[in-house]
Every structure is written in C-alpha cells, then in structure tokens.
Amino acid sequence: MCDESEFFLLPFCYSECPKHFYAANDTSASAGAANETSSGVSRARAVCLRCHVTCLLCSGPAYNQCLNCSIHRRLTVDHQCIAVDADRHLSVLAVVAIVVLPVAVVGVVAVTVWQWLISRRNSNK
Known about the structure:
Layout: E1 7-9, E2 12-14, E3 21-26, H1 29-34, E4 45-50, E5 55-58, E6 66-69, E7 73-75, E8 81-83, H2 86-123
Antiparallel strand pairs: 1-2, 3-4, 5-6, 7-8
C-alpha cells in the first residue's frame, strides 16, 4: 500500500505520476478494500492512469486533455496533440539546401578568387 502522498502504478508507488500517466483517485470497491485505514474507514487510492496515446503529459484520459505532446506532435490551444507535418519541414530544409547552400558556395569561391587576385597584384609590385 502506498503512502497517502503517493500514487500507485503497478507494481510501484510514485511521488508523482510518470510521463504518459495522470494522477487520479481510484474509488472502485477493490481499491477501497485495499486502502482501509486503521480506523476501518476506507479511502480512495491515488493511482496513475494512462493518458491518451498522443499525450506526453495530461490531466485526464481524453484526447483533448493533453498538457504536453509526444515527439513529432504539437499542442493546440484546445489541448490536443496533433501530428506535425513532417513533409512541410522537409520541404523547408530542401529550400534551404537548394537556395542557401549554393549562395554560400558562390560566396566562398568569390572570396577565394578575390584574395588570389589581391595576392597576385601584390606580388607583381
């Protein structure tokens, strides 16, 4: 049995629920029987229950109770974790590779040629 300040997640007790789980009170009959106090009064057992599969952290089991998202997902204003458009991110990287890289190469070549011309001019003096 867990301490009063702990949460049960089979087979351990935690001071806080791990990622992908949220804290709840298990008020089922079996939980009450397992958590009978010394005075004979049963109390609800604090447990960790599974978040929706898209959530990393959540406040409940539903898809719109996410507080933080798993990798490759983003949190919306209505607390849903939606997939990040991987194709869009790849297309941005492709544009960077196609536009920026050649410009950088041309810049390096131009500087190298400029330095060569200056050194040649200085050696002819």
